[in-house]
Amino acid sequence: MVRRFLILGLIFWVAGCGAHLPQTELSSFKEAKHPCRVAVLPFTNETKHYRLGRLVYRIFLTQLTNSKDFEVIEEGQIRSFLRLQRCLVGQEPPPRVLRMLGARLEVDAIIGGTVLAAGEGQEGVFLSFMVWAKDATSGKLLWNTYHSRTGEEYLKVFHFGRVTTFTRLAKMMVQEVVHDWEKKGLGGCSR
Asked: For residues 75 and 88, what is the distance between their CA atoms, to the nearest angstrom?
């Protein structure tokens, strides 16, 4: 009897120490298709670390470009379009501008994101961000993903594996998000 409780306790303890995977919520948008060609907007930043939005955006852009499920439009085309429309880089453009961007660059979806929180504390660095994808023609939300981690969560044994920089933490988190999207079949290029 005691042995069963110990085994059950061990199972719950191990399950409680599991990874916090990205939380992706799919929209109920009926005409939603799996986008292949996407435009990635610069991320907004709601933290006091003023370069963190750009850092997470660039890492996300690189990881998504390396994915076989998405064809990513060049960053320069998006920035020049936003400049022509007099939209500030790092702020989400209005819906009409998103639809115009989709039509002009002939993309299926527009992806953007926000860095919500970041800092350094007792558990090392921590970061949380949200990424969304909207249909380029209608502007309706296709899905959004929320992900939050600390550097301590990657700890393996003793201090091996511990993440101590925002760059490494962001890279590992973005890899998890893109892998989650691939696993769920959200991209349309590999079909």
From this structure: 15
Q: What is the pTM of this model?
A: 0.83
C-alpha distances out from residue 133 to 34, 47, 79, Å: 11, 22, 18
Q: Where are the domains of the chain?
A: 21-184
> By three-state DSSP, how is residue 13 classified?
helix
Residue 38 exposure: Cα atoms within 13 Å on the Cβ side = 29
Query: Dihedral of the CA atoms 77, 83, 86, 89 (nearest 10)?
Result: 90
Question: Between 54 and 89, whose confidence is greater?
Answer: 54
Indicate the SS3 state at residue 26.
strand
CATH superfamily of 21-184: ABC-type transport auxiliary lipoprotein component (3.40.50.10610)
Mean pLDDT of the chain: 83
